[in-house]
Design brief:
- The protein is an all-alpha fold and 452 residues long.
- It has two domains: 215 residues, no CATH class; 211 residues, no CATH class.
- The chain is built from 15 helices and no strands.
- The two termini are 29 Å apart.
């Protein structure tokens, strides 16, 4: 085996995962666009509600992410039973979490009021969340099945199921938000209903393939699903809960940056929102590669093949580095045009938003380098089932370093929006370096046991 072969394998496995992440990202963008076309109050309620939903979904997603390295390890050992056990208990934990979190959505209004939201926005968002909260369970089931199928290198079906979900989402939003073709005009509630139905569709498609697709009978995923498997249940939980907190920590970093941008005024906040949206779309490339490296490292780790672990990590890092270079060229060469796609040309604030947004995309060239570094290192460490220390690194790097640095640079030192973004870079860079060094030590250490 050589590095060129590893790069080709990573591309073959990773391109559908990258595409799936981009398509998944487009679902949220579609909701934002269509609610914005419907009304400003609907957009406000949908934005707050979706952020609330996304945060709680991420917390529970740790169990789905934990399935990926465990199932990949089973594949690497040729142990179909181990792969099946990990996926089943991932489904159990996701179902339990999905049910336990429902009351938070049912009574989300008082929580949003306590967080300082306007009474009407809080009431509308609660109406959204009381419906959309039902999407958490099928959404987490979808994520578990994506991990299972990705570990088996069946990534194309994951991609096409996500495409089907995105198309369904756009169609259902058009019918239910606006009341087209005789459907009731439901506004923000229509977007919530669409979210539930789309997640059910994607979960159903992946479940059918996982149980009836070619070569899937060996895994007998639903056979005796009702029987608990407590040792694997505990292992998925032990690996998964730190992943959930890591994801929420990073989300909190960006949420805090948005709050600080809001202190600077409407134009900086709008420019920040556009630039983050563009950077987020590019980040999907690195996220897909991160999931790919988890699979390939996990399979090699299951075979106890440390040179293959190192090659898989290097191949994914090279591809992520190429994506960084291409994105940097895009930001520097087409920044104003990219920002203009998100701003109405007749808006009085458009020139200011375009100027600041294009400037922030220049800072994003540095930002996305360190962001790519941390998510790739996270993927590698998940491949060797190491999640607790990465959680600690993330919480310290993002909350004790990144957010305070953003505040100091942005306000006391007077750098404004640039300072806030540079603070994000500092936090992400610190986490990226710490995670990369930890992975290098683990791979170099002879005879080290699989963590967990």
């Amino acid at each position: 085996m050589n590095l060129r072969h590893d790069i080709f394998r990573t591309l073959s496995l990773g391109l559908p995962l990258v595409g799936g992440q981009v398509v998944q990202f487009s679902i949220g963008m579609t909701d934002t666009l269509m609610l914005g076309w419907y009304s400003v109050p609907a957009l406000a309620a949908g934005t707050i509600g979706a952020s609330f939903l996304f945060s709680l979904m991420l917390l529970g997603a740790g169990f789905a992410f934990a399935v990926l390295p465990l199932a990949s390890e089973g594949v690497g050992r040729g142990d179909a039973t181990a792969t099946r056990r990990a996926t089943r208990m991932g489904l159990w934990l996701s179902a339990i979490y999905g049910v336990l979190v429902l009351p938070v959505f049912l009574w989300s209004g008082p929580i949003l009021l306590a967080l300082g939201q306007q009474p009407q926005v809080a009431a509308d968002a609660q109406s959204y969340l009381r419906i959309a909260g039902l999407s958490v369970l099928p959404g987490l089931v979808t994520m578990v099945l994506r991990s299972h199928l990705s570990a088996l290198e069946r990534t194309r079906v994951v991609f096409w199921a996500t495409v089907a979900g995105a198309l369904s989402n756009a169609g259902l939003n058009w019918l239910l938000i606006f009341g087209n073709l005789g459907f009731p005009e439901m506004g923000v509630a229509g977007a919530a209903v669409a979210s539930v139905l789309v997640n059910v569709v994607m979960a159903g498609l992946l479940l059918v393939y996982a149980t009836r697709g070619p070569g899937m009978a060996e895994y007998a995923l639903l056979q005796n699903l009702h029987r608990p498997d407590w040792p694997i249940f505990a292992k998925v939980f032990r690996i998964g809960w730190p992943i959930g907190l890591t994801l929420v920590s990073e989300t909190g970093l960006f949420a805090a940056s948005a709050v600080m941008m809001g202190w600077l005024g409407t134009v900086p906040l709008a420019a920040h929102g556009v630039a983050i949206q563009i950077a987020g779309a590019v980040f999907m490339l690195h996220l897909g590669l991160s999931q790919t490296v988890t699979v390939r490292v996990g399979q090699a780790w299951g075979r106890a093949d440390r040179p293959a672990v190192a090659r898989a990590a290097l191949a994914a890092t090279i591809l992520s580095g190429i994506a960084v270079l291409l994105a940097t060229a895009l930001y520097l060469g087409a920044g104003p045009w990219l920002v203009s796609l998100f701003v109405a040309p007749d808006d009085p604030a458009a020139p200011q938003i375009l100027a600041l947004g294009a400037h922030l995309l220049i800072v994003a060239a540095l930002f996305q380098l360190v962001d790519a570094g941390q998510v790739m290192a996270l993927g590698m460490l998940r491949g060797v089932q190491d999640t607790r220390m990465p959680m600690v690194y993330a919480m310290v790097g993002y909350w004790l370093l990144g957010i305070p640095t953003s505040y100091v640079l942005g306000f006391p030192l007077g750098l404004g929006p640039d300072g806030i973004w540079l603070g994000l870079c500092v936090g992400l860079a610190a986490v990226a370096v710490a995670l990369a060094l930890r992975f290098a030590r683990m791979v170099a250490r002879p005879g080290a046991a699989v963590p967990g």
